[in-house]
Amino acid sequence: MSNVRHDFFHLPGYLHASAGHEGGSAVLLLVDEGDHGMLVPFIKRPLSKYGEPFGDYFDVTSPYGYPGPLYWGQDWEARLPGLHARMDTFLREERVVSLFLRLNPFVGAPDDLLVPLGERVAHGPTVYMDLRDPEQTWMGINEQNRKFISRQLARGFRVVIDAWDTMDTVIEAYYETMTRLNARAFYFFPKDYFLALKEGTAPHFHLATAYGPAGDILGGAFFSEVEGLIHYFLMGTFEQYMDASPSKLLVNALRLWGIEHGHQTLHLGGGSGARMDSLFDFKRRLSKLTVTYSTFRKVLLPDAYRDLVDVACGGDFENDFFPIYRHPRPGQARTGVLSPAEAPGQASS
Asked: Is 171 exposed, middle or buried (0-12, 13-18, 19+ CB in 10 A)?
């Protein structure tokens, strides 16, 4: 793993923490062909809830985040079809009905190489900063936000990195933010999840805490860093401090911290569900640089897939959600269900 360029979302500790939260088993699939290979982290989920005929069937999905497949070796691009064929054969033998992968826009294969191997869906742009040019990252923030950040810092607002004694308070701010946004139950990650990431992915998981001039905690953000790539992961702001807009101070603090520690990229994420909404606009005012966020999906056992759709959706259901049979039916609570496009993001303030 250390010899293959990877991201935070490929770490075993992240996969295990996610599997515990997402109701499946953690699997790190390795296709080793000697001089080249592929590694795919995913969560294997049982399908027994759809009835006795599916008791021995499963599907696999990426954990929440950007944990797309990793490839290595000589001419791995040309050998991609063979690697995926080996993976598909193994999954079919394991009675896996469908495969859903959230791709990483910075690490792995270019999207166009995956098009012949399954269905690649481009969901929308996601915003990042190029930290290799410190001056440009500052000037890439629009003038209004630069003035706001400078003014807040002059007034005594500040951000402290890895003040872990504030974690409970930041989690409380995060929960308050998710409640304010009417977020799905999935996003109310328990404290054990944050602790599992802190302990299981060390030293790559961090906490940024925003303080007001009087020392009160305004909110904070959890973020990751691996091999020069920082992800602004989950953040929250107490409602009483919304006017102080600590998220702008947090992004600026991560920008400066990343530059200081020699990182190259700060990924801010996209809009809600990868849409070009107000959250996306907020991030675009912090950087104009974007890449495309995509997912990859494939039906491995078509007959079983159709049977599942018949059982779950009456056989007549068209939607971008994949796999379709996991889409909540009308009137069914969406507890714990992620749309295909969802990946780490955070609210603006």
From this structure: buried
Q: Is there a domain that residue 349 lies in? A: no
CA 154, CA 144: separation in Å to the nearest integer?
A: 15
DSSP 147-181: HHHHHHHHTT-EEEE--GGGHHHHHHHHHHHHHHT
DSSP string, 238-276: -GGGGGG-HHHHHHHHHHHHHHHTT--EEEEEESGGG-S
Strand partners, 25: 44
Report residue 337's pLDDT band, with 50, 70 and 90 as the boundaries.
very low
Q: How many domains does the chain have?
A: 2
Per the prediction, the chain carries an average pLDDT of 91
| Judgement on whether residues 136 and 280 belong to the same structural domain of the protein | yes
Share of the chain above pLDDT 90, in %: 82
CB 69 within 8 A of CB 99: no
How far out from the chain centre does Cα 175 lie?
A: 18
pLDDT value at residue 304: 97
